[in-house]
Structures are given as C-alpha cells and as structure tokens.
C-alpha cells in the first residue's frame, strides 16, 4: 500500500504539472486514483474525465538516469574517509567519468575505490587520464582542474547522449484497455528524462493525429515534464 500511495502522489504531481501547462481547470477536490484509471477528475467545461498516464522514456534511459543519480551517492560514500591531505591536494579536481554499458552499481563502487587509490598517489599538478589502462567497466576517467575548492568531485558524462523516447508505448496502452470507465477517457503520455522532443524531429503531432481518437480514448496528449511543455495533442 505504501508503494501504491507513492505512485499515486507521483502521478498526481505529473498530472498537475500537465494540467497547468495544458490550461485545463481541474477541481482539486475531485481528483481520485481508482487505478485504473490513473486519474479521475472534474475538468471545467468538459465534466468528469478519466486520464491514463504512460511514460515514454525507454528502459535504457531510465536505467541511465537512475545510475547518474546513484553515482553521486556512491562517490560521496567512497570518499567519506579520504585523507585530509589528499582531499586538500585535489580540492580543485573534477573527474569526468564515462562508464561502459552494463556497469552496475557494484562495479561502479569498485571503480570509484580504484579512482580514490589512484588519487592518493598523484601530485597536485596532475591532469589528464586517471588510468594508463582503464578498469573493466570504465570508458574514461579524466582529471580536470578548475578554480574550485570542493573537489575531488565527479561529473558523469555519456558517450551516446540522451536516448530517444519510445512512442510505441502509446499504442501498447491503447491496445491494453478494451473497456472504458463510463466517462470520457484521455491518454496522457509524458517524457521525464528523455532527449528533448525539439531535438528528435519525431513528428509527434502527426503520430497522434493519425491515431486518435483510439480505443477508449477520446483524446491524447504528449507532455515533456522537464520543460513543462505540451508537445502534441490530438484531436
């Protein structure tokens, strides 16, 4: 039940951001989470509407962003007991790190420990590749020195950049529901972390226009959460 409440809070937060961007006037006291649908509420000028949410970020992107978050915690943990002299010596260091695909948290922690061991032996003027031969799971680790005093810190970079969204999840969601909920139903597809739609040239407007209305859904939306922008709507 705790997980269900957490999911409902997350979905409500996303929905409220979307409603504000879309100019929909929602009666706050009317919002419920029957699951399904994810959101049931009163919309001014329309009436009672059921909203189903679907996230468009692919698994690869979700995993990558989760790893990015966790890496900062791992690095803080590994460097917690770093010798004060070593910390001072490398206080202006930022290490740009790129992990190989498939490098899990256990492997990353091991690599971070090796990085710390390497820092222990490096002089205060060193910059460049941290290792002569990178450990397994590591694509690169480059030491850079800046006008900072909060180091040594890490900055994880990606070799490939953000991953595009998966629009086929919209079709999967439509096909999943054979019966509605006795009220108007709309589909809210959203992207949380994926490559910005403006960079992808996905033709999302045409994608939705050629599909909706569809199944139980009278209308569909695509919402980019990071920019708080409605990317497409149909009809």
Structural write-up:
The protein has 235 residues and is α/β, with parallel strands linked by helices. It has 2 domains: 2-58 and 164-234, 3-Layer(aba) Sandwich (Trna Endonuclease, Chain: A, domain 1), CATH 3.40.1350; 60-156, no CATH class. The protein has 6 helices and 9 strands. It has helices at residues 2-22, 59-78, 84-89, 105-120, 168-176, 204-209; strands spanning 39-43, 47-55, 93-99, 128-129, 138-145, 153-156, 184-191, 219-224, 229-234. Strands 1-2-7-8-9 form a 5-stranded mixed sheet. Helix 2 packs parallel to helix 4. It is elongated. The model has no long low-confidence stretch (mean pLDDT 88).
Spell out the key features of this protein.
235 residues; alpha/beta; 2 domains; 4-stranded mixed β-sheet; 6 helices; 23% strand
């Amino acid at each position: 039940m705790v997980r269900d409440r957490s999911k409902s809070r997350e979905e409500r937060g996303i929905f409220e951001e979307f409603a504000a961007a879309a100019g929909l006037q929602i009666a706050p006291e009317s919002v419920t989470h029957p699951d399904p649908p994810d959101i049931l509420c009163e919309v001014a000028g329309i009436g009672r509407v059921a909203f189903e949410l679907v996230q468009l970020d692919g698994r690869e992107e979700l995993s990558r962003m989760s790893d990015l978050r966790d890496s900062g915690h791992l690095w803080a943990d590994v460097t917690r007991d770093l010798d004060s002299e070593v910390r001072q010596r490398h206080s202006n260091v930022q290490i740009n790190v790129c992990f190989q695909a498939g490098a899990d948290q256990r492997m990353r922690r091991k690599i971070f420990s090796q990085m710390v061991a390497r820092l222990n032996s490096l002089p205060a003027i060193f910059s460049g590749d941290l290792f002569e031969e990178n450990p397994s799971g590591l694509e690169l680790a480059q030491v850079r020195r800046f006008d900072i005093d909060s180091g040594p810190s890490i900055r994880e970079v990606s070799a490939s950049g953000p991953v595009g969204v998966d629009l086929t999840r919209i079709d999967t969601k439509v096909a999943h529901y054979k019966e509605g909920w006795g009220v108007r139903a709309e589909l809210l597809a959203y992207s949380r972390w994926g490559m910005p739609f403006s960079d992808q040239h996905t033709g999302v407007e045409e994608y939705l226009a050629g599909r909706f209305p569809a199944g139980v859904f009278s209308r569909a939306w695509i919402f980019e959460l990071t920019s708080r922008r409605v990317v497409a709507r149909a009809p």
